[in-house]
């Protein structure tokens, strides 16, 4: 194995994953603000996940309005949509922050000359938050599902990142928490996949959509990537 590049997941990897309680509380708040039945609104929210993550909705406002239309809710005023999304915005303000060692790891990898990429399954409100965060400028290639219209574990999303970095899959380490079967997908594509799992965090309290049943390589701290790649390195 010779490593030339490193690719990271975002949620649950570079930033903490959302707790179940916070995430579904934000959806229930949307229902309340829009006068919708909470259970029915949750169902409608889940039914639009692919569209939300692949750019069908350019904004979260569009997603909310589409759900209202599908549920037969009269189109709400812009102020009501803003209020509906308020709890979601607060959730991101709380949890969209670098996990311990994340900025340090990216900065050191760049200093050592490794090309870096991000592949994130996300809604359209994530890219602006990334650009306003401490991560801005720390990776060479940003692959947001809501921008490129691809989802994990589709091989095309990994190919997109590799082509943009100018490397082959077998020259890449992919690090993620395993949501959306991303580790299995990366491994099947030819990458070296590594799970990040902090033993101090109770994973049962966190979102982990379409999770991997992963038994491969695992680290507890992102900084462990530094030693891993340095022992298997070939400079570009």
Name the descriptors.
Rossmann fold, 236 residues, alpha/beta, 2 domains, six-stranded parallel β-sheet
SSE order, as H and E?
EHHHHHHHEHEHHEHEEH
Number of helices: 12
N-C termini distance: 15 Å
Strand content: 5-15%
Could you say what the CATH architecture of the largest domain is?
3-Layer(aba) Sandwich
Number of separate domains: 2
Shape: elongated
Largest sheet: 6 strands, parallel
Helical proportion, percent range = 40-55%
CATH H-level homologous superfamily name of the largest domain: HAD superfamily/HAD-like
The total strand number stands at 6
- SS content category: alpha/beta
Uncertain segments: none
Strand order of the largest sheet: 3-2-1-4-5-6
Radius of gyration, whole Å: 18 Å
